[in-house]
Amino acid sequence: MKLNTATGKQVFQNSQKLITVAQFSTRKSGFNKKKLDSSLWLMAQNCVKNAQKLRKFVCKIARLQKIHFIS
């Protein structure tokens, strides 16, 4: 699998934004599991997990191809 540098960088940045938004919506705004609807809470947590997996996958491919798009 060949990773385009621009695409990899964009995927990495988008996954970072997704993690930040999901974490902000559940933690930093003062919400907790009791205040937040349970389905919304689970959706936000799954969003973080999936974005982290995606970021890890892209970084692994980039490392294998010796692409450096993360500063």
Could you please describe the fold and organization of this structure?
The protein is mainly α. It has one domain. It contains two helices and no strands. The longest helix is centred in the C-terminal third of the chain and has 27 residues, at about 40-65. It is elongated and about 40 Å long. The protein starts with a helix and ends in a 7-residue tail after the last helix.
Brief descriptors of the model:
71 residues; single chain; 2 helices; mainly alpha; CLUMA_CG002457, isoform A
Number of strands: 0
Shape field: elongated
Q: How would you classify the helix and strand content by structural class?
A: mainly alpha
The helix-strand sequence is: HH
Largest sheet: none
Could you list the spans in which at least 5 consecutive residues all have pLDDT below 50? none
The number of helices is: 2
Beta content: under 5%
Protein name: CLUMA_CG002457, isoform A
Organism: Clunio marinus
Summarize this entry quickly:
By secondary structure, the protein is an all-alpha fold.
Topology:
Blueprint: H1 5-28, H2 38-64
